[in-house]
Amino acid sequence: SRNTSNTTTNNNNNTNSNDSNSTQSFDGGSVWILLSKHMEASKRHEQDKNDFLTLHVYDESKVNTRDRRVFHRVGALYTGVYINSPHYLMRIDVDKKDAKQTVRRYTVIISQYEKKHDVAFTITAYSTLMRTRFRPIEDTKLWPYQKTFMGEWNKQYCGGSPNHDSFPQNPQFKITTFVQTHLRFILEAPIK
Fold first, then answer.
1. Among 90, 84, 98, which residue's Cα sits nearest to residue 21?
2. Own/partner pairs for 145-149, CB < 8 Å, 24+ apart?
3. How many CA atoms lie within 13 A of 55 on its CB side?
4. Does 89 have pLDDT greater than 90?
5. Over the range 125-160, which residues count as b (16 or more CB within 10 Å of their CB) and which as e?
6. Which residue has the higher pLDDT, 171 or 100?
């Protein structure tokens, strides 16, 4: 399977905006994930040497990542090393399922260290297993209702931490739900 996309973030620990893919397997064997950066210049020495990418893999039976975006790399089955090579290959060893597990699922995260710009890539899955699926996780299906608020911390609205009497001056938002649901809050700041 192939997925072509652009990587969108990151720092070393936060995986908020990184692209996520899901693979599932039914038997024991190996799944190889190949991440290939697209070369925008015709010569290797002209490429940006600061584009460090890696892969992180989560076992969905141990960390609940099923069809969900991962926000922090804690609990990863495999934590990749950030490298600036045009190719990155990772092997996922899949144990044969036990009687309680019908399918083994993994979430694969493509992560960029200290993002300076978008990097185009292709991700390909190869498997020794007969029945393996590999697909991107579509964030828009996971969170069909979204609301964005623009704001800023300035001299008027910067109350500091809860340890300060001025804490109530911080921007505040209230959310009310009338059914049990999952919520996700993302605080983003521009890079200057």
1. 90
2. 149/173
3. 27
4. yes
5. bebebeebebeebeeeeeeeeeeeeeeeeeeeeebe
6. 171
Spatial separation of the C-alpha atoms in residues 18 and 52, rounded to whole Å: 13
Query: What's the chain look like in SS3?
Result: CEEEEEECCCCCCECCCCEEEEEEECCCEEEEEEEEECCCCCCHHHCCCCCEEEEEEEECCCCCCCCCCCCECCCCCEECCCECCCEEEEEEEECCCCCCCCCEEEEEEEEEECCCCCEEEEEEEEECCCCEEEEECCHHHHCCCCCCCCCCCCCCCCCCCCCCCCHHHCCCCCCCCCCCCCCCCCCCCCCC
Region 107-129 average pLDDT:
85
| Mean pLDDT within 26-34 | 80
| CA nearest neighbour of 96 among 29, 24, 23 | 29
Q: Given pLDDT bands bounded at 50, 70 and 90, which one contains residue 137? A: confident
d(CA 134, CA 125): 7
